[in-house]
Amino acid sequence: MKINVDLKDLLSAVDVPAQWVGIREVYEAHTPRMIRDGVPVANSRTSTHGVMVEVLVDGQFGYYGTPDMTAVGVSSAAQRAYQQAKIASRNSIYSFDESARPKYCGNYKSPFSKDRNSLSAGNLNEILLQAYNNLKISDKIVSASSLCQIIESSFKFVSSNGSDIMQDFLMLEFDLSATAVDGTNQQTRTFGGMRGTCRQMGLEFFDKYEIMANANRIGEQALELLHAEDCPTGEMDIVIAPDQMMLQIHESIGHALEVDRILGDERNYAGWSFVKLEDFGSLQYGSELMNITFDPTLESEFASYAYDDGGLKATKEYLIKEGLLVRGLGGKESQIRSGLEGVANFRSSGWNRAPIDRMANINLEPGDSSFNELIEQVQNGVYMESNKSWSIDDYRNKFQFGCEYGKLIENGKLTKTVKNPNYRGISTPFWNSLKGVGNFDTYGIYGTPNCGKGEPNQVIRVGHASPACLFNNVQVFGGV
Ligand SMILES: [Zn+2]
């Protein structure tokens, strides 16, 4: 049961001589439901609730998180945040002032038409069990699962310079998976690649996504892959489906453009970036067909919001326009430190973490080719769907990705199914080989709850939307 907290009362309980004080309250509840191999394995509800007290002292921000949301608890947290800022200011890398926390007031609520109680636990288990039965179409499907997690989250933020923000989120994570085995050959198909499908919406999700038809297709494709030839090896054209494009965008654009990472903050843990500060405005990251946006406004995408956790208003911005790198993923602090324009992406994973530069929704804008027009341009190539494996160096440069499902493209037509389709490349040459971008009919909206970064670690939700895309002359190979 969520308790009600008056954040403005708590703000007045802070009695340290800070230049600025902010309090962020975060409540989050998770309700997972899962059927594995015909048996319910998860039906629970967990929640977490607390506040992060932030103070600005001698140009340095100090933080202290606490689940004790009384005046005494917050006053004590503020004292600790003050001490931390005082000590850290002796070694600060930049001396900030209040301009790092501009005043904003407003509200946000996830758009949805069916709330979380519109399907009972029993109804949801029935849907998941029926989906499981649609996945398990043969004895050769040795394992199958269906899962749904409902997430409710509420972020509130008030500050001594008058910010007052309330944001309420309703989200769903959904996945289906079928693993088929024949001898030593094992193949898995899923609903949206290994990270599932994640959306910010209500339980109308189950009306829209033809769950049972998709479960049948996934089961059939897992079996189909058992008899498929291995993906060919060589340099050829590839057409990539949105559920693999999402990871391509995440790993070879999103992480590379995090400004705190470019500044070196993350090199001890998450890594650095091949992108340098002087590349903004001059680096031709990809072909002229490439338009990448930071878009917190796309309805139902996983990481849509109106304000980041520094209270900055979130707007849609181009990061890469017609292939040219124009803007980084830097929140207000990174913008001040780097002198670059940025976006409202200063985000924390919960009440007990300080915000850092994160992805939110990072999307590839649609082009004007139909799916058939992309395929027709290929004489000899492979179409690939759904991520299975990934690897990228810690400068976000050399990568290798594996997909679940492929089809040969011969003389402009999709032909045989192939298993174990993989490709490799280097970030900017790869994106410069982008030769076709699909239209809205090819567009898919995906997301993941599992983006990790920061010390202490923060696992955060991100969204990625993309059309299907054609890349020329890519190194393709088969095998596991
Ligand atoms: Zn990530």
Report strand %. 35-45%
| Helix amount | 10-25%
Question: Tally of extended strands?
Answer: 25
Mean of residue pLDDT? 96
Give the ligands present. Answer: zinc ion
Content-based structural category: alpha+beta
Terminal residue distance: 47 Å
Largest sheet: 9 strands, mixed
Rg from Cα: 23 Å
Specify the overall morphology.
globular
Count of helix runs = 10
Number of domains: 2
Low-confidence stretches: none
Describe the protein's architecture and organization.
- By secondary structure, this protein is α+β, with helices and mostly antiparallel strands.
- The protein folds into two domains: 7-227, 2-Layer Sandwich (PmbA/TldD fold); 230-477, no CATH class.
- It is built from ten helices and 25 strands.
- Strands 1, 2, 3, 4, 5, 6, 7, 8 and 9 form a nine-stranded mixed sheet that branches.
- α3 packs parallel to α5.
- The chain is globular.
- The two termini are 47 Å apart.
- The model has no long low-confidence stretch (mean pLDDT 96).
- The structure holds zinc ion.
- Zinc ion binds next to loops.
- Zinc ion binds at residues 250, 255, 451.
